[in-house]
Amino acid sequence: MNDLSTWASALVSAVDADNLTHPEACCRDARTPHALAGAPTAVLDHVALAYEDFQRCGALPLSRLRSDVVAHRLTVHEDGENILVARMVVPGGPWPGHYGLEAVAFTAERAAMPDAFPPCEDRGQVLAFGRIVAASKAYTARASGGAVLFPEQLAVTARPARQSFGVVFLDRLTTLFRDRVLPLIDDRHEGMHAFPLRRLRQLAFLAHEWGHRQGSDAELEVPARSRRLAAVIAELRADLEALVMLEACSEAWAPWAAGVLIADRIAREAWLRRPQAQVDAIAARHLLALLLRHRAVTLTSGHRIVLHLDQAAVFLHEELEMVRRVAEELSAGEAGAVARYLAGCGWAITDGATCYRELEQPIARYLGYQASMKETARA
Ligand SMILES: [Zn+2]
Fold it and tell me: Can you tell me the distance from the alpha carbon of 141 to that of 226, in angstroms, rounded to the nearest whole number?
């Protein structure tokens, strides 16, 4: 039996070579399907799915590969080894909006909600925390690579109705936070430095997912997550549900997990490249605008940010009520509900889905500047 790491490293090299040197090779003749041979027994079922996609698209060029079989049928081996090979976009990756062939080998463990959160049904959402064993270039790009795997990232001809898998690479999220966000946070947020950062990032992520599960079934489905404005309102709702829930949570870590959730949004995701087209960036800017309007984020003389969460509790609650109503209108078939809400908050929307908003306040300009400096530093 082959070792996952050795086999996956060779597979990843084939994927990278196909992207760089053979993008017009036909699916059947590309290097990647040949490199699928000799896989460890533990991932043979995953390999078979990828292989089926390559065979189905046979004579088409790689750029026309559609990964329907993987998107519809991959199930993650919890407490085991996994491989996903598909044509997909890497959110936050080096080529925003660019679909490339990607391979990610990883181990996984089930992501369970903490007992301290109010109980919620998993609603058919299966979520795992993964550790990357080997991954293609877009994934491994330092400080920008992929941090999640969801079916909606894959290039498909027909979207799956349900989310058959969801994987979060917590180490990647933690590193991004430690390198790009934590240095901007004032020391008076001592809990963010005192609690293990990986645990806080995990709690912040789980709180956000808990927030998603408070929405309607339709909101959780892949087609809804793939429509930008519907996805934006779902993201906003998940953040607000999470923040309101954490505010009521008596655990000592709860305010720090809320701080991590907010800080990652406003200091990092709000400044992703092409923010007008990135769901996370739009939701993040919206949250930042809310915090600024209510003076719930301030800047110290030493240029560190301070979050005033106690002050934020009331307006976050009010905004959650508003966003819940928008989501309900949308579910009831009011297609323009989200655009109306966003436009009312100061967003300019073009083509029905591209959302522009420049934030001119000094704190926003400072955060944007810091994010661009970190972007330049890694370029
Ligand atoms: Zn989300």
Answer: 25
